[in-house]
Inverse folding.
C-alpha cells in the first residue's frame, strides 16, 4: 500500500489519510457514543454529519499543509547544502 500511496499527489495522500485512517474511525465513534445516551434523531444527524464531516475536512487540510511544509523544509535543507 505504501507504493500506491507514494504514487499519489499530495492532496490524494491527505485525502486518503483524512478519510480512510481518521475519518472512518471518527464516524464510527460519533455513531457509537449516542447509543449510550438518549439522543434524538435530529441531534444524532447534526452531530454525526456536521461535526464529523467538518472534522474530517479539517484533518485533510492539516495533513495537506503538513506535507507542503515538509516539502518546503526538505527543499530548503537540500538547497542550502
Amino acid at each position: 500500500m505504501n507504493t500506491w500511496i507514494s504514487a499519489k499527489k499530495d492532496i490524494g495522500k491527505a485525502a486518503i489519510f483524512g478519510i480512510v485512517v481518521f475519518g472512518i474511525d471518527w464516524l464510527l465513534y460519533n455513531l457509537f457514543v449516542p447509543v449510550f445516551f438518549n439522543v434524538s434523531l435530529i441531534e444524532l444527524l447534526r452531530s454525526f454529519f456536521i461535526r464529523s464531516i467538518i472534522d474530517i475536512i479539517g484533518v485533510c487540510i492539516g495533513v495537506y499543509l503538513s506535507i507542503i511544509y515538509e516539502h518546503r523544509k526538505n527543499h530548503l535543507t537540500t538547497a542550502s547544502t
About this structure: Residues 10-80 form one domain. Helices lie at 2-6, 10-36, 41-80. The chain has a mean pLDDT of 82. The chain is about 90% helix and 0% strand.
